[in-house]
Amino acid sequence: MGREILLGRAVGETEDLVFARRRDLGSLCTVHRGILDAFLVSVDAIRERGLFVQDLDRVRYCRLQKGGATVTLIRQDDVGWRMTEPVQWKADDMLLDEIIRGILRVRTVVFAGTLDTNGPARVALARPEYGIAISESV
User: Fold this and answer.
1) C-alpha 97: how far from its chain's center?
2) Which residues of the chain form beta strands (DSSP E)?
């Protein structure tokens, strides 16, 4: 069951309390003003920062691109990791798991606007040098 509280002004000038009430109740109460710290957090601070949300055990496909070169890998339960591009070879499972684990941990450091609002980013990403694709399906 959800609840909503409404918060008002400080109780007195030096008090560490603010007036409050539950929306569904008429009675007033006071709460510590520390609850107002929740409003100090910026919208960007609470945005999801993870760029990949998969669990390592569920990843079945990985494509790494650098310039015109592409390495494509798939993971099968009975075989493990294998390359399908540029050649078809068995891949090193431990190394691939380590690489993909590192990719999955990548998090946004700063939100830099959009391609419409950030000219340097638009220029830098007009011709990306690298690309990573990860999926739970092949």
Assistant:
1) 20
2) 5-10, 17-22, 29-32, 61-66, 69-76, 80-85, 89-90, 130-135
Cα-based torsion angle of the residue sequence 118, 123, 125, 130 in order, rounded to the nearest 10 degrees: -140
DSSP secondary structure code for residue 87 in this structure:
S
The one-character DSSP state at 79 is T
- pLDDT, tens digit, 9 for 90 and up, residues 33-65: 999 998 898 888 888 888 888 899 999 999 999
Q: What is the pTM of this model?
A: 0.69
- State the DSSP code for 82: E
Q: Which residue has the tokens 């099968």?
A: 76
The CA-based angle 53-57-60, given to 5 degrees, is 80
**Segments in the chain below pLDDT 50:** none
Q: Give the angle 39-45-49 at the CA atoms, nearest 5°.
A: 150
Q: How far is CA 34 from the centre of its chain?
A: 27
- What does the block give as tokens for 82? 């294998």
